[in-house]
Design brief:
The protein is α/β, with parallel strands linked by helices. Helices cover about 25% and strands about 25% of the residues. Strands 3, 4, 5, 6, 7, 14, 15 and 16 form an eight-stranded mixed sheet that branches. Strands 10-9-8-11-12-13 form a six-stranded parallel sheet. The chain has a two-stranded antiparallel sheet with strand order 1-2.
Length: about 325
């Protein structure tokens, strides 16, 4: 990956991950670009950490919803950092405030950089008990889990929830959110990750490699399907009457919904949205200790290509985080 350097006195520029073409991780570059300025109702954030999500890998390779005409593609949505400047009309924050969030999604945000602007109401104050690395691991994945379980499925105490790929970025946070909302939680994962899931609060774990989850998990109220493909239709068979599968990955949501209706259950396809109310709920759970991200790998911004390779491998439990702080980078947790 090509790397640029920047003098400390060049306050109007910054280092940012860019790409000129679509393709593999090797198309990513760390370039010197113009530092953005906040517009009305926006803040400029000096980014300390930003996580890598599967959507970043997809956008890098395909251009996302914009398609092949997209490059350059500003990558990154999660951020945790310090407010550097505020635009006209901002009342929620002032320079020096520590904030985190998922600005602009699904529009480009470009948080894989030293600075980014954000609508002020797409951010919330960072809980004091979280490091910037931990806070950066939360927004997109935790908002996805929150919007799926709370807003879409209407989770209530006593419900039975099945989370697929429960050790993954969204899954491990969904387990904790469901537990905090009083649900009985079952997670699917390989046997090596069962201890991790039990530590997070999962009541039951199913090894998808050796056990048919359709027979191991029954009477389910909510299924969170982060995998797609055959998992959606198979998950319908685990539901009690009136239950729901919330799919984050199924390419055939119309067919899935039709099949669900025939079985007397429901299916919904969900895409995460920028959401201040959801971020406040996530921040409250994190501040209370009920929600804690598992950061599997921390790498400096200059090693973003390696982070994309790790994300695409599908073998990481928890989250991958990029940092602009060299002292915090290049850490791998024992569970990575």
């Amino acid at each position: 990956m090509k790397t640029a350097t920047k003098s400390q006195t060049q306050t109007q520029t910054m280092l940012a991950v860019t790409q000129r073409t679509l393709g593999g991780p090797d198309v990513l570059e760390l370039s010197t670009t113009a530092r953005p300025e906040p517009g009305p109702a926006e803040v400029l954030v000096r980014i300390h950490a930003a996580s890598v999500n599967p959507t970043d890998v997809w956008h890098r390779a395909t251009g996302g919803l914009a398609g092949a005409d997209a490059p350059p593609v500003p990558l990154g949505w999660d951020l945790s950092g310090t407010v550097e400047a505020v635009g006209i009309g901002v009342t929620l924050f002032e320079p020096g405030d520590e904030v985190f969030g998922m600005p602009r999604h699904p529009a480009p945000a470009g948080t894989h950089a030293e600075y980014a602007t954000s609508p002020a109401r797409h951010l919330v104050h960072k809980p004091a008990g979280l490091t910037h690395t931990e806070a950066a691991a939360l927004p997109l994945a935790a908002l996805t889990a929150w919007q799926a379980l709370v807003d879409t499925a209407g989770i209530r105490p006593g419900m039975r929830v099945l989370v697929h790929a429960a050790a993954g970025g969204v899954g491990h946070l969904a387990v904790q959110i469901a537990k905090a909302r009083g649900a009985h939680v079952t997670g699917t994962a390989s046997a090596a990750k069962h201890g991790f899931l039990r530590d997070l609060g999962a009541h039951e774990v199913v090894d998808y490699r050796t056990t048919d989850f359709e027979t191991a998990a029954t009477g389910i109220d909510i299924v969170l399907d982060t995998i797609g493909g055959e998992y959606g239709p198979r998950s319908l068979r685990t539901l009690r009457p009136g239950g729901i599968v919330v799919s984050l990955a199924s390419p055939a949501e119309a067919a899935l919904a039709e099949e669900a209706r025939a079985l007397g259950v429901r299916a919904a396809f969900m895409a995460v949205e920028a959401d201040r109310a959801g971020m406040l709920a996530v921040a409250e759970l994190a501040a209370s200790g009920a929600l804690r991200p598992h950061v599997a790998t921390v790498l400096p911004l200059s090693r973003v290509a390696e982070a994309h390779e790790l994300s695409a491998s599908g073998r990481t439990s928890g989250k991958i985080v990029l940092t602009t702080d060299a002292d915090a980078a290049d850490h791998r947790s024992p569970r990575a």
